[in-house]
Amino acid sequence: MSDALDIALRLVAVFAVFLVFPLVIGQTEHKVMAHMQGRLGPMYAGGFHGWAQLVADGVKFAQKEDIVPAGADRRIFQLAPAVALLPYLLVLVAIPIGPHNAVGQALDAGIFFVLAVMGVGVLGSLMAGWASANKFSLLGGLRTAAQLLAYELPMLLAAASVAMAAGTLSLPGIVEAFHWWWVPWQIVGGVVFFTAGLAELQRPPFDMPVADSEIIFGAYTEYTGLRFALFLLAEYAGIVVLCALTSVLFLGGWHGPFGADGLGWLWTLLKTVVLAFGVIWLRVTYPRLREDQLQKLAWTVLIPLALAQIALTGVVKVVIS
Question: What is the DSSP string of 42-95?
Fold first, then answer.
């Protein structure tokens, strides 16, 4: 009975994080962009600092008419938002937030699990583009497929490097094996992992699949109301997952300068929030890449860097042993 209660409490905690954190990231993006770009709109809703902007957005999406194009594949069209969103809920189950088994479910091959399931989330965009009966949506879906193929490899190679250093594929095991001196010689892998993750989430400057100046809004052009809101929520959930994974793999997760086990979850949360702020900052700062520039960055820069990181990890492991 106690085991069942423990599992239930863990699932409730993961589900609560899944429901709350992406919305917090979305609200934060409104405010950060408003300050950085001098946008007045998001600062007025509800009065003090525009606190009701998120509520206003939710009401707006709920009121919009739910439209399915006449020529669309109806079932695939309706299923795509769920396929885009739910994989991030599964990934959160395997990400440790603190010591002493503070994780939804510890997996021996957790790093393979999270990367495989995150890749499934991109299929939601492919399904949306294919099922919309719109050439711009189809083009956005094809760009999503090309982007996934290009950036999945450097992301996997970078994660493999830190797994080699730790000698385990378990996410809690990687954090437990972490030492502060890992940061300087694993930082290249961390940058490659984080950059490839942004590209898979189609976040600026890697948002070519939704380039409004060329293909309206890509795979999401025909979506309205709550289904469109689910795609946005999937993007913010992906930011939470990517930043949490980066902090766990490359920044020591729950390890902090004071070494207090009781505050381990706070260090993980703090690192995740700082990285999420960086994601928003990148959106405000850099223009999107051209499609050829996007592919060139993956194949000629990120993949060689990831391979070099693996070679360096092998050398360091040999020297240490």
Answer: GGTTTSGGGTTHHHHHHHHHHHS-----TTS-HHHHHHHHHHHHHHHHHHHHH-
